[in-house]
Amino acid sequence: MAPLFARFATQYTNTASRFIAEDDYVVVECRGQVTTRSGQPYNNTYCYVCRMADGRLKELTEYLDTELVTKVLADAT
Description:
This protein has 2 helices and 4 strands. The protein is an alpha+beta fold. It has a 4-stranded antiparallel β-sheet with strand order 1-2-3-4.
């Protein structure tokens, strides 16, 4: 994560707004906010699908706005 966080000028925050759990899966909806070193806001919405086993995270799938990543973070050095 260090190369990604090096592109940020402010402290990255991620706030969860919804959790849905069923069997071995937990789905988390959240929003991240930060300002890049180039001064652009990078505010993305995420959905994490987590597979749990024995009380531990075994698998994580992340869904997000990839076009926003390309647009904002491509030149955020």
